[in-house]
């Protein structure tokens, strides 16, 4: 599962958790219905935003839903899933962009893609996904050439980029693709006046996704010699962080001009709040355990709790979710600050909050 919008379920209300899972599973099942079982590998966290935006703008009094059968990734539970045009648009767009990601790995000879037989097989799969995604998006009135041209333009830009190339020149194809996809949700919902603000939100979403991916892969790409936009353009983390923060603010401002007809709480949570969490996750927020943290005064350690009282405190922290997501929390026994399990360990190794909070919320 890939994508930058990975909400921890402790930050979502029970109702929004249900909605989020409905759109995620709806995307997964739309891929299966339209393109077969193997296409479900293209399911991603970001694609479901298209489904969420479409539904939030639709005038229907009740959203399009159906009950899906048991799934191993839901613990063999049934679930109510989204079935509207937004889910199918998300499926088509996800296939085309997943195809681009596969081609990128082939070009960079990442991992097993360095082996010619595997690369050849992957290329055939990418070609099939392009054709399938094109068919789905065309049926929904979306011009797939916008996405395909963006993919080709990205490849050309990466081959010609150098230290004098502006970083935003390299993010432009991604921005154009996501802007078009976001804007088309307005046409599916019969609200064409929403296309302009949604295109702006989509453009900045694409910029953010591209930059965060570059930051996460920077060390690996440097070690393997693969293309990385930050390394090629000599952009440091501070500059990249500023661009990401500006993008988050711009998305929030653009969404204020969108005319919603349905419940827009999930769309607002994902795009106005979870994106900021994504930036913090990738760049790291203030960390009291970081190597540069040198307090001027080191207070004496607090007295330890006894076995019984420590167990009682541990039970309370566990039941309230603080052991998982609070950063920092007080150790039940020695009372020293500790990091929540999904925030990383005390050696400052951060991890994705979805590792512990979303273990049952994927499809």
Descriptive overview:
The protein is mostly helical and about 375 residues long. Helix content is about 60%, strand content about 5%. The protein is built from 13 helices and 4 strands. It has a two-stranded antiparallel ribbon with strand order 1-2. The chain has a two-stranded antiparallel sheet with strand order 3-4. The longest helix has 30 residues, at about 195-225.
Integer average pLDDT:
83
Run of helices and strands: HHEEHHHHHHHHHHEEH
Radius of gyration: 22 Å
Fraction of residues in β-strands = under 5%
Instruction: Please estimate the helix content.
Output: 55-70%
So what's the overall shape? globular
How is the main sheet built? Answer: 2 strands, antiparallel
Instruction: Kindly name the structural category.
Output: mainly alpha
Distance between the termini: 9 Å
Oligomer: single chain
User: Strands of the biggest beta sheet: in what spatial order?
Assistant: 1-2
Low-confidence stretches: 286-295, 345-363
Number of strands: 4
Helical region count?
A: 13
């Amino acid at each position: 599962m890939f994508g930058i919008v990975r909400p921890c379920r402790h930050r979502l209300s029970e109702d929004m958790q249900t909605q989020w899972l409905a759109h995620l599973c709806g995307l997964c099942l739309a891929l299966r219905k339209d393109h077969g079982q193997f296409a479900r590998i293209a399911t991603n966290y970001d694609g479901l935003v298209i489904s969420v935006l479409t539904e939030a703008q639709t005038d229907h009094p009740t959203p399009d839903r159906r009950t899906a059968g048991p799934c191993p990734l839901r613990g063999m539970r049934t679930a109510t899933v989204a079935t509207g045009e937004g889910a199918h648009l998300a499926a088509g767009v996800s296939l085309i962009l997943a195809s681009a990601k596969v081609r990128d790995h082939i070009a960079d000879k990442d991992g097993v893609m360095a082996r010619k037989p595997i690369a050849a097989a992957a290329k055939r799969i990418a070609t099939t996904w392009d054709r399938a995604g094109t068919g789905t998006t065309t049926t929904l009135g979306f011009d797939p050439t916008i996405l395909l041209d963006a993919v080709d333009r990205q490849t050309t830009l990466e081959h010609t980029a150098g230290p004098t190339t502006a970083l935003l020149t390299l993010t432009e194809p991604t921005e154009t693709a996501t802007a078009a996809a976001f804007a088309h949700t307005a046409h599916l919902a019969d609200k064409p006046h929403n296309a302009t603000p949604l295109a702006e939100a989509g453009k900045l979403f694409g910029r953010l996704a591209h930059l965060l991916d570059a930051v996460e892969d920077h060390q690996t790409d440097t070690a393997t010699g693969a293309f990385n936009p930050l390394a090629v353009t000599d952009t440091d983390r501070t500059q990249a962080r500023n661009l990401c923060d500006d993008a988050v603010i711009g998305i929030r401002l653009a969404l204020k001009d969108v005319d919603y007809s349905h419940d827009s709480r999930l769309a607002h949570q994902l795009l106005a709040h979870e994106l900021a969490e994504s930036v913090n996750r990738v760049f790291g927020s203030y960390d009291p355990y970081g190597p540069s943290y040198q307090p001027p005064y080191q207070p004496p350690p607090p007295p330890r709790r006894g076995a019984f009282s420590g167990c009682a405190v541990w039970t309370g922290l566990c039941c309230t979710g603080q052991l998982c997501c609070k950063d920092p929390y007080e150790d039940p026994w020695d009372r020293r600050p500790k990091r929540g399990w999904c925030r990383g360990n005390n050696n400052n190794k951060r991890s994705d909050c979805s590792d512990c909070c979303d273990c049952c919320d994927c499809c």
